[in-house]
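Quick illustration, no need to memorize.
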Amino acid sequence: MKTDIILSGVGGQGILSIATILGEAALNNGFFIKQAEVHGMSQRGGDVHSDFRISSEPIFSDIIEKGCADIILSLEPMEALRFAEYLKPDGWIITNSSPFMNIPDYPDIKNILADLKKYTNNIILDIDSMAKEANMPKAGNIILLGAASKFINLSTKQIEDGIKDVFSRKGSKIVNMNLEAFQIGRESAK
């Protein structure tokens, strides 16, 4: 078993939380992980990406080469498009459709979404609206993780246990909110 995931977005969106949850879930179930350096996290609104690899066999490199990613999981559509060349032909792009317009010359979102839809396997969700509608505006990242979970070689229970481990110190209310957000995402990925 092997899943290579590029996590992308902008600082403050929760990329590191997704990586931490997947890491906990993988390690707690005897899998190997490698995670490349996360870029840009020192600046809220700066681009952030991480190569995240899960395998049942030892992993010798933490870098995902172009054309080899199983999943591009992005909280920001332009960032998803930026890393699309890393996707393997049968891989999945799973992204938020709502842009984080942190630059003055942000490209036309309609063009970005049209380019993302050219990929055969794509799930493009307005997770910002979904999170607000569910009254959990800060859980969009976990909704997106739920949508991607069907394509990650970890079981629903394993990822849910990772969510519990990561958020347990914040109390049961936060754990339950994130578990609910995860299920919203799973149900939306059809």
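The radius of gyration is 15 Å.
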